[in-house]
Amino acid sequence: MATAIAPVQRASLSMSFANKYEIKPDQVFQLLKTTALKSKDPVSDAEVAAFMIVCNQYDLNPFIKEIFGFISKGKMQYVISVDGWATLINRQTSLNGIEFDEHFAGEKLVSITCKIHRKDRALPTVITEYLSECKRDTDTWKQWPVRMLRHKAMIQCSRIAFGLAGVLDEDEAERMSDFPAPVLEGKSTRRALPEIERYMEALGWNEAKKNVSRGSFAGNPEGHLAFVKGEAAKANIVIDEESRGHVLQMENSEPDINFAEESQETREEDETPAQETGTTAEASTSATAPSGAKKTITRKADPGW
Tens digit of pLDDT for each residue in 257-268? Predict the structure, then answer.
């Protein structure tokens, strides 16, 4: 007698995602609809559940864009980003190395060959992708043709070497006529993003919470900035952006940091303005021990912020 297979319940899917990414179970479906699933039409709960099953199958994180989905001709398409493919490949226990050969005619790129070696096979899987077949009239292909073709060769080779099926890569998805247009990043967006990251850092959020916050405001950086500023205000945290010195001033709050015990005279001698030097963030702290006192953290700004 055949054993009936119990259907996957929405509650169990939501709970597993909630536990894995540290979010509330009742927020999972809506969060995925607004962050990882691109569609001009409403996405059904059944389509979200199917997407979650694929995420679980490949163990990829939709909140850091390792995998996402969109509706094409009424059917959900699952797309793995380049980072997601790299994660999948490096996770294979049989992987024994990857090689790339770039082929040029003079200074003109012609093709790139990817070789994936497996520990359990005598010969590598070898795939060659040709620029004439893959190149598209987009900014990324115009600016980075070698990188883009290398990605194509790696992905195609990994599909054959490890039997990865049922998913698209980003370039394939973008070639589909009904792929949702991306949200272009303007100057205001680029200005807002570093400030958002500084506020999330000041709030002491872990990476999972940061990713959920980023996903919740995908395509709306100004709204995201307003949100994190509001959260910081609730915690009595103010970031002094003058000269991009990254000075955090916390009034009547206890941040997650251990302040060194030192005298007032020592603190005054050690305090120096923050300067943008080097590529790493250095921190000095000064604080008074009593609760409720003003605490100041000064960090040298990272040019990448």
Answer: 333 333 344 444
